[in-house]
Input
Amino acid sequence: MPHAASQEQDESATAPAPRPTRRRLLLTLAGAAALSAVTAVTAGGGRAVAAPAPPGGRTARPAAARLSERVSALLARLTLDEKTALLHGATDPAGLGQAGYVPGIPRLGIPALRLADGPAGVRVVRRATALPAPVMLAAAFDPALARAYGQVIGHEGRALGQDVLLSPMVNLIRTPYAGRNFETFSEDPLLSADLVAEEIRGIQGEGLVATVKHLALNNQEHDRMSVDVRAGEQTLHETELRGFEAAVAAGAGAVMAAYNKVDGVHATENSALLTDVLRGLWGFDGWVMSDWGAVHSTDAALTAGCDMEMPGGTYFGAALRRAVTEGRVPRDAVDTAVGRLLSARERFGLLDEATTRPARDAAAGARLALRVATAGATLLRNTARTLPLTGRAARSIAVIGPSGAVPFVSGGGSAHVVPDTATSPLDALRTRAGARATVTYALGEDPYGKPLPATRPARDLDAVGVAAHETWSHRGTLTTTADDDWSFFVHYSGTRPRITLDGDDLFPVRPGVAGYFTGGLGGRAADGLSVRRADRRLAAGTHTLTVTARGGAQGQLFRLRAANGATRAADLAEAVTAARAAHSAVLFAYEDATEGRDRTSLALPGRQEALIEAVTAANPRTTVVLNTSSAVTMPWLAKTAAVLQMYYPGQEGAAATAAVLFGDADPGGRLTQTFPATEERHPTAGDPRRYPGKDGVEEYGEGIHVGHRWYDAHDETPLFPFGHGLSYTTFVYAAPWITRADDGLDIAFTVVNTGTRTGIEVAQVYAGPSPDLAALGIDQPRRILAGYRRLRLAPGEQRRVTVRVTARTLSSWDPARHRWVLGTGRRRLWVGSSSRALHLTAETRVGAP
Ligand code: BGC
Output
C-alpha cells in the first residue's frame, strides 16, 4: 500500500512573471482593467505579441508582420490571379492521394504544396507507418515520446512527397461519445498542451509544416459542420485553447480553422479567434487554413484571418478576384494572407523545389509504433495476478473475438493510414506462446456475416465478379421461418451494389462520404473489400431481395452476407466451448469509431456484452482486451479477471498486445480521460444543450470543469479515474517537499518500486484552488493536473523526483480583467497515481511577486 504523508510548509513560493503585461483577452471588448492585487502573469510560453490593449476597450489588432526581402519581392511580382491561386486548394495531377494540394507558380519558381493527414501517420495512397492512435500516445504521459512520434511522421511525410502535415489534433476529449476521441490526446488541457508542443517540434524538426487543428471547440462530430459552440472566455482559455496556445508557442507553422461555429460565428470567420487571440495574444506568425469545406464566405473569412481555403477555391478563387476588383475586399487583405503563407513557406524551405527527399525508414517507423503501443497499453484491472500470463495460463489460451484475428490498426476517417503491415493478435500470441502451447480461436461476434441462406431462384451471392462496364442483377426471395433480428453485410470493391429487401434500400450511398468514414475493423474485410452493414428485424415469411451491381471502369467484386439468431447462437456457443477448454481466455472486444459521426452509446456495440458475460461465466480467468476509441461502459467488469485497454494500436499493435499480456513489457499507459460508471454520469450527460446541442447551439455547461475536474466537482465516482492504469509491480510514494522555483513551484517526492519486477509508474501532481482567486469570485477546479513524470524503476529502486508546477498552471483566466492571474495564497498540492489515488499532500503559500 502506498503510504500518505503530509507536509505543512509556509514557505513563500513566488511565481515570477516572465513578462508581466496588461494584455487582455481580445475576445471581448470590455474596458481596459487596472492591475490588481494579484499580478497578471503570462507564464508558460506565448511568444512576443501585440502591444498592450488600447484604453477604451477596442480590440488591439496585431501589427502586420515584417516580410523578408524575398517574400516582399515575390509579393511585388505576383499577379492577383497568382496570389489567389496560392490561397486555395486544387486537384493534384500527381495523384499521391493526400488530402490537399496547392499548385505552384512556376514562373516565379514557387513549388506546389502537398498537405497530408494526419494524426496517426501519413495518409496517402501508398503504405506508411500506421502509428497507434494519438490517444494511445497520450496514455504514455511522455512528451519525449510525442516528439519521437512527430519525428517519424515528419520524416515519412517528407519521404512520401508531402510538405504540410494536417496534424496534430488537440481538441479536448469533452464527451465520451465524440467520434474523433482516438485522434486527439486527452480531456486534460495541461497534458494535451505538453504533448502537442513536443509532437509539433518533432514534425517540424524534419522539415514538414505541422498544422494544429481544429481551432476551436471541435469536440464532437454530431452536426460538426454547423453546431454553434458557446464557451465563456475563462473556459476557452483554461480548457480548449491551452493546447492551441502551446502549439503556437512551439512554433506551429499552420493552424486549421474548424467546421463548427464558436460563439455564433463560423470558426473560419471568427476574427476574435483567428486574429485577436491567435495572432494578437499569442503572436502566431504562420498561416490559417480552413478545414475541408469549412469556408462559407469570401470577404468575411479572409478578413477574419483565414488565409487559405481548402480543398478547393469556391470562395478564395474567382470569387475572391471578383471581390477585390469590385472593391469589396481590399488588396491588402490578399497581400496579408499571401505574405503570411509565403513567409511560413520560406521558413520551412518550401519556396524552393525540393531537390532531394529522404527515403522512408519503415523499420524505424515500426520500432516507434511498437514502442508507443507498449508505452500506451493501459491495464485497467488485474485480479489475482491474472496477468502477465505465465505457467499454465500461458500454455493453454482461448483467443476470442473478431479483433483477435483481424488486426485493429486505426480508426476511420482522415486519420486512417494504409499500414506497411499488420499481424493479427492471434498470430502474435501463438508466436509468443511457442509451439508447445495450445492457442485456440473462436470468432464469438461476427462483424462480417455468413453466406446468405439460399435465395430463390438459387444464385450464389457470396462471390460475384462483375466485368468492367457491365451490370449484374438478381431478383429473388429470401424465406425466413421465424421473426428474427438480421444483420446484412455487403462486401465490395468499386461502386457499392444496390441491394433492396422488400423495397428497402439496405446500403444507400450518401454522396461525398463513400469510403471515407470507414476504417477500424467493421468497415473492411480481411481481403480488403469494403464492408457495409444494415440491421433489420424481419418477420417470418418470404421477402423480396434485389441486387444490382455495376462494374464501373474497374469491374467489381462483391458478396452479400448475413447474421441472424441462429448464426449468433452458434458463434457464441463456439466461443464458450473454446473458453471452457482452455486454462485462460483472452477476449478481444472492439468499437469502431470514425470521424464524421459520434457514437450513440457507450456500450460495446453488437452483442459483445453478452459474449463477455458468456465467456467469463465459462472461464473466470478471462482477460478482456479493448480495441476501443474512448471510454466504454463495462457492466461486465466484475466478471472479468483483467482488462487491458489497447485503443487503436497501429500496425504493431498485435506484438505490443502480446508483449504486455505475457509480461515482456510492463503496461505503460494511464487513462487520459475519465471512464464514466454509466451513460448518465459524465460531464455531458443529462442536458442536450451540453451535448449534442439543442436547436443548433451547444453550451459548455460544465465550464472549466472539463473531464476529471467535473467528477471532482460533483463527487462523482467514475468507473476508472483520469490517470488510472496498473503496473505489474507496486510503488510507494514518500517525503513530499515544495520549494520555490523560477517559474512557479517545484514539488519533490520519492517513489519506490516495492515489487519484484521492473515497472512503469506515472507520478501525477494535482493542485488545489487559490483562496485569493476564490475570494474574487473566480471559478476554480477542485483539483487540476499540475504536472507528472513517467518513471521506469527496477525492483527495489527508489527515485527522488522533482516536478515543476509552473506559474501559468497556478494561474486562472480572470474573465473580468481578461488576463491570466496568479492564484496566490495557500495552495495545496497532491501527488498520486491517478486523480483519485492521491498518496501525498503538501501545502505552501504562493505570493504575488
Ligand atoms: C477533417 C480534417 C482533415 C481534413 C482533410 C476534414 O474532414 O476534419 O481533420 O485534415 O478533412 O482530410
Summary: The chain has 20 helices and 35 strands.
